[in-house]
Specification:
The complex is a heterodimer. Chain A is α/β, with parallel strands linked by helices. In chain A, strands 3-2-4-5-7-6 form a 6-stranded parallel sheet, sandwiched between helices. In chain A, strands 11-10-9-12-13-14 form a 6-stranded parallel sheet, sandwiched between helices. Chain A contains 22 helices and 20 strands. In chain A, strand 15, helix 17 and strand 16 form a beta-alpha-beta unit. Chain A starts with 15 loop residues before the first strand and ends in a 23-residue tail after the last strand. Chain B is about 35% helix and about 30% strand. In chain B, strands 5, 6, 7, 8 and 9 form a 5-stranded antiparallel sheet that branches. Chain B has a 4-stranded antiparallel sheet with strand order 2-3-1-4, with helices on one face. Chain B is elongated, with a radius of gyration of 21 Å. Classes of the chains: A alpha/beta, B alpha+beta. Chains A and B meet through strand 6 and strand 14 of A and helix 2, helix 3 and helix 7 of B. The structure holds thiamine diphosphate (TPP) and magnesium ion. Thiamine diphosphate binds next to helix 17 and helix 20 of chain A. Chain B: GO terms for molecular function: acetolactate synthase activity. Chain B: Pathway: Amino-acid biosynthesis; L-isoleucine biosynthesis; L-isoleucine from 2-oxobutanoate: step 1/4; Amino-acid biosynthesis; L-valine biosynthesis; L-valine from pyruvate: step 1/4.
Chain lengths: ~575, ~200
């Protein structure tokens, strides 16, 4: 006989008595949540008890550590464009979320995290597993709120989802005391939130600034577009492409913006910033009009601010008014949702080509190919490079995969060289640079995009920070390809020690376990290669394996990522070696 | 950039907010994160029922204050933030001074000094008397100096409260906030609205 899938309870009629926990789960279902990443514990047990009946609608993924849970939630949110939902218990469960909250806050990732809390009457008494979660998470959340009475749950959850996903998205944490989870109350139904009077997610578009911006663009001889994740957060990829193709302006991306325009688009001139491409960095200080779209001029992008694009008139399109003039003074602020502002701008700009100007970027690209890229992707040395692994991966996936990266040299190499055909295909910890992000984020990314191949590119250091999530892969049966680029070093730190600390390699020499054996212990097939002849076949084996697979590639130990804008230098001082 | 933008001076930041637990913390953290000292902080009801008002005083450049203002306004429960120089507000601080009663009784000069400084008696006991003055910093400071030689026992000064000269209150604005489609003035911060005056293309 066929097992029938457990049906989740239907939304109760008005005035039905239900528990706070049930109200919470009904709210999640109503908001379109299908997957929860979580870990139970004493203070969240009533919610887990209610969850038992909701299996049909809410898939719960049991992670191995709450940090893994929240990074998975982030991966899910970034691949799917939906709000990631995370459960954790009070005290240590909640404090384990903090890194992920800070990461989601700085990278504008929509999350709703639910933490259990001790009974309301115990608050402030140093009760067992009590922590001041609201206090701790205030600076790393877009909004947080403590619920001590079940009747608040529907309204607060509605607000939480609205705040997490609207405007500039971000993480929201709702702390619910155990009594509120247990408390029965007369349910009044669930109404999504559309308006909070003190919160303006989408500023009104000011036509006069659009006009001024268009005038500047039309007059420009050497305009240059910088785009960031905002294009994806605003689901404005098409509008962005239309704007670019009409204006013919060359465009470069921040690490968070990678993939919003396909890698091989003729106007895509590459990556910005410290380890970005040569041309885009140099040309930032050559252009006459700089058009920044959904990016925030992070110091890793700008290098030394007082020598950044001083010659240029700056147009900044952003949804967050606090970003306007925060780091770079703008000439024209185009404050608003780029999904709305870009088409308005496109209407007013002239159709142009900028062929010669674009060709200049290609000249710089050629220089970079000769000095760096060719040897990185097609090395003549015996040992393998990270770049060639990514190159081989590109050839097999043809740019169709989602690439999730950890933090370090492999991240820079993967982001620089990965071919991305689609938006929401590059998932990395950009703002916080959180080692340990990739493995759990890849799990979440796959849950958020089940039809896509997900490859996690991780260093030998970072993988050991959240390696316990192999257990999540094992138990959930999710299909994630794990590619460890093992240089037997905390490579990025070693690179800085080599370049700026006279090669004093202080605690960057890191040993690794036998990853293939570790994976095997978790029931995940794996392979380790240290010869170029085996690389292609190993990558193919990984990608064609029906489930998860771990591939370790031994790469050369002391390679450096170039080009590089050394800290404190101007973008035009970018070094090719 | 105007001179005002780079010169440090006192700014009065007025924040209209919902009444929400934890919001004070959220606002204070915006300053502490930048290692900025809050010189004075006052919370009070506002002219609109249910809406709270913070008065915060900092010594900073206009450039930094305008960035801080936008960070504050970004908080979900914050309705509106204004920042003004001392010239643009009417402000007052209140101070209390505890002095031995004996000294006042014996020295006529003290009584004259108190009168000159506009001090008002709020409590008299056989052992001490408490005076109050209200005014600007210099005025309340001055009386400390005056009373110090006469055995000032205790001194305390309140946070600053300030009213913006140009403001026509928050009632009308709040109604716009409550509507789903607010007007320009409500949505945008002063800085952006008066941008043409600040920068030229
Ligand atoms: C949680 C955390 N701790 C420390 C760092 C500092 N850090 C940045 S890159 C790096 C080295 C990463 O080593 P590995 O994962 O092997 O990557 P590689 O650079 O060798 O490719 C370190 C320690 C960090 N980014 N995150
Ligand atoms: Mg390494």
């Amino acid at each position: 006989m066929l097992m029938q899938e457990k049906q989740a309870p239907a939304l109760p009629e008005t005035d039905t008595m239900i528990s706070g926990s049930q109200a919470l789960l009904h709210a999640l279902v109503a908001e379109g949540t299908d997957t929860i990443f979580g870990y139970p514990g004493g203070a969240i047990m009533p919610i887990y008890d209610a969850l038992y009946d909701f299996e049909g609608d809410l898939k719960h993924v049991l992670v191995r550590h709450e940090q893994g849970g929240i990074h998975a939630g982030q991966g899910y949110a970034r691949s799917s464009g939906k709000v990631g939902v995370v459960f954790a218990t009070s005290g240590p469960g909640a404090t384990n979320l903090v890194t992920g909250l800070a990461d989601a806050q700085i990278d504008s990732t929509p999350l709703v995290c639910i933490t259990g809390q001790v009974f309301a009457h115990l608050l402030g008494t140093d009760a067992f597993q009590e922590a001041d979660v609201i206090g701790i998470t205030t600076p790393v959340t877009k909004w947080n709120y403590q619920i001590t009475d079940a009747t608040e749950i529907p309204e607060v959850l509605a607000k939480a989802f609205h705040i997490a996903r609207s405007g500039r998205p971000g993480p929201v944490l709702i702390d619910i005391t155990k009594n509120a989870q247990l408390q029965k109350f007369a349910f009044k139904g669930y109404t999504p939130c559309e308006h909070i009077r003190s919160y303006r997610p989408k500023p009104i578009v000011r036509k006069e600034y659009i006009k001024q911006a268009a005038e500047l663009i039309n007059k420009a001889k050497k305009p240059f577009v910088l785009w960031g994740q905002g294009v994806m957060l605003g689901s404005a990829e098409q509008e962005f492409k239309a704007f670019l193709e009409k204006t013919g302006i060359p465009a470069a991306w921040t690490i968070m913006g990678a993939g919003a325009l396909p890698s091989d688009h003729p106007q895509n001139v590459g990556m910005l910033g410290m380890h970005g491409n040569y041309g885009p960095n140099v040309m930032t200080n050559e252009c006459d009009v700089l058009i920044a779209i959904g990016m925030r001029f992070d110091d890793r992008v700008t290098g030394r601010l007082d020598k950044y694009a001083k010659q240029a008139q700056v147009i900044h399109l952003d949804i967050d008014p606090a970003e306007i003039d925060k780091n770079v003074k703008t000439t024209v602020p185009v404050w608003g949702d780029c999904k709305e502002t870009l088409p308005l701008l496109t209407q007013l700009v002239e159709t142009k080509k900028h062929t010669d100007w674009l060709a200049k970027f290609r000249e710089f690209e050629q220089k970079e190919i000769d000095a760096v890229i060719r040897e990185e992707l097609f090395p003549t040395t015996e040992e393998m490079t990270m770049g060639e692994v990514i190159q081989q991966l590109n050839e097999i996936t043809n740019g169709e995969a989602i690439i999730v990266t950890d933090v370090g040299q492999h991240q820079m190499v993967a982001c620089r060289y990965a071919k991305l055909n689609h938006t929401r295909s590059n998932i990395t910890s950009g703002g916080l640079g959180t080692m340990g992000f990739a493995l759990p984020a890849a799990i979440g990314a796959k849950f958020g995009a089940l039809d896509r191949t997900v490859v996690a590119v991780i260093g030998d250091g970072g993988v050991q920070m959240t390696i316990q999530e192999l257990g999540t892969i094992m138990q959930s049966g999710i299909d994630v390809k794990i590619l460890i680029l093992n240089n037997q070093f905390l490579g990025m730190v070693r690179q800085w020690q080599e370049l700026f600390h006279e090669r004093r390699y202080s605690f960057v020499d890191i040993t690794s376990p036998d990853y293939v054996t570790v994976a095997k212990g978790y029931g995940i097939p794996g392979r380790s290669v240290n010869k170029r002849e085996e690389l292609r076949a190993a990558l193919e084996q990984m990608l064609s394996n029906p489930g998860s697979f771990l591939l370790e590639v031994m790469v050369t130990k002391e390679n450096n990522v170039f080009p590089m804008v050394p800290q404190g230098c101007s973008v035009s001082e970018i070094r090719l070696k | 950039m105007s001179e005002q933008a780079i010169e440090k001076q006192e700014y009065n930041i007025t924040v209209y907010t919902e009444n929400q637990i934890g919001l004070l913390n959220r606002i204070a953290m915006i300053f502490s994160r930048r290692k900025m000292n809050i010189l004075s902080l006052n919370t009070s009801p506002s002219e609109v029922e249910g809406i709270h008002r913070f008065n915060i005083v900092v010594h900073e450049t206009q450039e930094v204050v305008s960035k801080i203002a936008r960070q504050i306004e970004k908080q979900i429960e914050v309705l509106k933030v204004y920042f003004n120089t001392n010239d643009d507000v009417i402000w007052q601080e209140m101070a209390l001074y505890k002095v031995p009663t004996q000294v006042i009784a014996e020295k006529a000069k003290v009584e004259r000094l108190l009168r000159e400084n506009g001090a008002r008696v709020v409590a008299i006991r056989s052992d001490y008397t408490v005076f109050e003055t209200t005014g600007h910093r210099e005025e309340t400071d001055n009386l400390i100096k005056v009373l110090q030689p006469y055995g000032l026992i205790e001194f305390v000064r309140s946070a600053r409260v300030a009213i913006i000269k140009d403001s026509d209150g928050f009632n009308r604005k709040l109604r716009e906030f409550e509507r789903m489609e607010p007007g320009h003035e409500v949505v945008e911060n002063e800085f952006l609205n008066s941008r043409d005056k600040v920068f030229s293309m």
